[in-house]
Amino acid sequence: MGENLFTGIAAWMRTALLDIGTPPLLSEFIVLLVKLLAVIIFVSLNVLWLVYMERKVCAYIQCRIGPNRVGPKGLLQTVADVLKLLGKEIIVPRRVDKIVYLAAPLLVFVPPMMAFAVIPWGNGMAPVEMNIGIFYVLAVASLSTLIFWMGGWSSYNKYSLVGGMRVVAQMVSYELPLVLALLGVVMLAGTLNINDIVNAQRQVWFVFAQPLAFLIYLTAGISEVNRVPFDLVEGESEIIAGPYTEYSGMAYAMYMLAEYANMMVVACMATIMFLGGWLAPFGWTFLPSWFWFFIKVYALIFLFMWIRWTYPRIRVDQLMGFGWKVLVPLSLANIFVTGVGMYVYRAIGW
Amino acid sequence: MFGQGLLKGLAITWKELFTRKVTVQYPEERLPLPARFHGRFELDVDKCIACGLCASACPNKVIQMERAKVGKRQYLTKYVMRIEYCMFCGFCVEACNKDALRFTHIINMNQYFRDKVRLVLVDRPAPEVIPEEEPAEAPEGRAAKPKAGAAGKGKAPEGEG
């Protein structure tokens, strides 16, 4: 039930538009816009929910109850917070680079939203089908670095500057093992098309074929979204809030919400590349494919939160050393082993 | 093995997820206060003999009392505690021979205005001395006397008179 709910709505819209005499190209365009809008709304709601979930998970791990006053079970807490922040002044300190300073929080949501455009939320539910989907997501996701740097540089504040530099150092160094880890999967699947990669996992999920790559991807992914134990970017006890130090009101909230959107991108990518995307495990197709995707993504997000509230922050030199001396060689070795393995399998003739 | 400590940490936090939460939702649920808790004061006017021991025991001169002579006995007309100066040491409660001044478990004595902080425990006019009222009050004192036992020495002369 519900398997074709969303694809059905899209098909119905397309035919309805064609029936009232819209040119095919225009109707395709309108349907695409509606799809993207739906994704944006879905992701925004998810981000609100994730902030609440984070606070709840944190509270439960710390033997507390967490937000439970606003709305049923405190569900409207994030909404209240956002409304409060909306009502606050966005302070622009003297001598900041005004245009860059104000543009950064506006732009920060763009890279994750662009990445979401190619994510298949269910069977045939990618808003945009792309041949080089993985490549596109990686390229777009690394744009975040630039925007954090914009915020850090333009703030005219030493903490922001240090935070911004840490973002660049960390994201650039961890981008490498992240991409190299995904390369093993791409080698196995033999394609950069997200749908084909998911379909290649019908027999076995790539997490079993590439366990090392999965671990590397998770580690690098957590680092990419600047979460504990790699949250040096905003390590409160060291540099206040990193690039967000000078921001207030909604500008600050945009950064925080974008962080959760980024986390979702990483979780979605891990689901697609390693956990079989929207494929149901054990042939349990009684749940629709988009629901399976959702479950997997949320399991990963819970894992991220769980990790966040378990581990302490690591040092800068440890971070860099771990990235370059452990993760990069490991991911290169993984590619090598994968290549050799594929060659051997082919030689055997499987 | 590398990573064992990491897994151990995760196991600990996983266990914590399901332990009983220690939060007490304050206005709705409260932790029980101990019996000897020093909260707001309460004065049992009927027991009070207006001896003034509490006022003299107070190190901060918090207690202000006014009394009037009604018949042969001291009659408490006003008992005000300037609670803003009180440090809740409990000397007054200890000093009270009649067990009239006591602590309660009321903890929210906050007010919006400073002059309302003052705790007025008794504020009443002294009754007219009417001969009929004296005996009317006397049986009360007598009835209380056996219960109070030997402690009712302040009221004893009145009962005789």
**Beta-strand percentage of chain A?**
under 5%
Report the mean per-residue pLDDT of chain A as an integer: 86
The strand count of chain A comes to: 0
Question: Quick one: biggest sheet of chain B?
Answer: 3 strands, antiparallel
Please give the most extensive interface between any two protein chains, plus how many residues each contributes.
A-B, 13 and 14 residues
Q: Please bin the fraction of helical residues of chain A.
A: 55-70%
Please give the count of helices of chain B.
Answer: 5
- In whole angstroms, the N-to-C terminal distance of chain B is 94 Å
Q: What's the story with the biggest beta sheet of chain A?
A: none
Query: Based on helices, strands and strand pairing, what is the structural class of chain A?
Result: mainly alpha
Determine the oligomeric state from the structure.
Answer: heterodimer
Domain count of chain B: 1
Compose a concise summary of this entry.
Chain A has 350 residues and is mainly α. Chain A has helices spanning 5-19, 24-61, 77-86, 98-107, 110-116, 133-141, 143-154, 158-189, 194-199, 206-209, 211-224, 236-239, 249-274, 289-308, 316-348.
Description:
The complex is a heterodimer of chains A (350) and B (161). With 350 residues, chain A is mostly helical. Chain A has one domain (96-348). Chain A is built from 15 helices and no strands. Chain A has helices spanning 5-19, 24-61, 77-86, 98-107, 110-116, 133-141, 143-154, 158-189, 194-199, 206-209, 211-224, 236-239, 249-274, 289-308, 316-348. Chain A is globular. Chain A starts with a helix and ends with a helix. Chain B has 161 residues and is an alpha+beta fold. Chain B has one domain (32-146): Alpha-Beta Plaits. Chain B has five helices and five strands. Chain B has helices at residues 4-18, 53-57, 91-95, 133-148, 156-160; strands spanning 41-43, 63-70, 73-81, 101-103, 119-123. Chain B has a three-stranded antiparallel beta sheet. Chain B has a two-stranded antiparallel ribbon with strand order 1-4. In chain B, strand 2 (63-70) and strand 3 form a beta hairpin. The termini of chain B are far apart. At the A-B interface, helix 2 of A face helix 1 of B.
